[in-house]
Design brief:
mainly alpha, 4 helices
Length: 152
C-alpha cells in the first residue's frame, strides 16, 4: 500500500509541475494576455494539490528507503533536498509574484525575469522528479536488489 501511495503521489506531483510549466510556456508563446493572467492566477491554487503530493511522496519515500545507504534509493534521497529547496525558495515565491503582477497587468522586465527563472527552476524540478520516477520504476520492476549494496 505504501509503495502505491508513493507512486501515485510522486506521479501527481510531477504531472502538476508539468502542467504548470506547460501552461506557462503555451500561454506565453501564444501571446494572449488574458490566458497568461488566467494561468498565473490559477497556479498558486494548484499548490493545494502539489504541496500535499510532494509531502506524501517525500514522506513515503523516506519510509520506504529507510536503512538504504547506496544505489538508486540513495540517488533519489540526494535529489529530494534540491527539489524541495528549488520549490520553496524559487518556485513558490516566483508563482506568487507572477500571479500578483499578472493580475495587476504588470508585464514588465521584472515579470519576464521572474518568469524566466521560474521556467528554468521548474524544468530542473521536472528533470529531477522524472529521474526519481525512473529510478522508482526500476526499483519496483527489478526488486530491491538495485536499491543498493545493503541496508545500514
Amino acid at each position: 500500500m505504501l509503495k502505491t501511495l508513493h507512486a501515485v503521489a510522486g506521479a501527481l506531483a510531477l504531472a502538476t509541475i508539468c502542467t504548470f510549466w506547460g501552461a506557462t510556456a503555451v500561454t506565453e508563446a501564444a501571446g494572449a494576455t488574458a490566458a497568461v493572467v488566467m494561468v498565473k492566477t490559477w497556479i498558486p491554487w494548484g499548490f493545494f494539490v502539489l504541496i500535499p503530493a510532494l509531502m506524501v511522496a517525500g514522506g513515503s519515500g523516506f519510509r520506504l528507503g529507510q536503512g538504504w545507504r547506496a544505489g538508486l534509493v540513495e540517488a533519489k534521497r540526494r535529489r529530494m533536498p534540491i527539489i524541495a529547496i528549488n520549490g520553496l525558495v524559487i518556485l513558490v515565491p516566483s508563482a506568487l509574484i507572477l500571479s500578483i503582477r499578472a493580475q495587476a497587468g504588470q508585464f514588465d522586465t521584472l515579470f519576464y525575469a521572474v518568469q524566466g527563472i521560474e521556467l528554468l527552476a521548474g524544468a530542473v524540478n521536472i528533470v529531477l522528479l522524472g529521474m526519481n520516477m525512473r529510478d522508482g520504476l526500476r526499483l519496483r520492476r527489478r526488486g530491491s536488489a538495485l536499491a543498493g549494496a545493503g541496508r545500514g
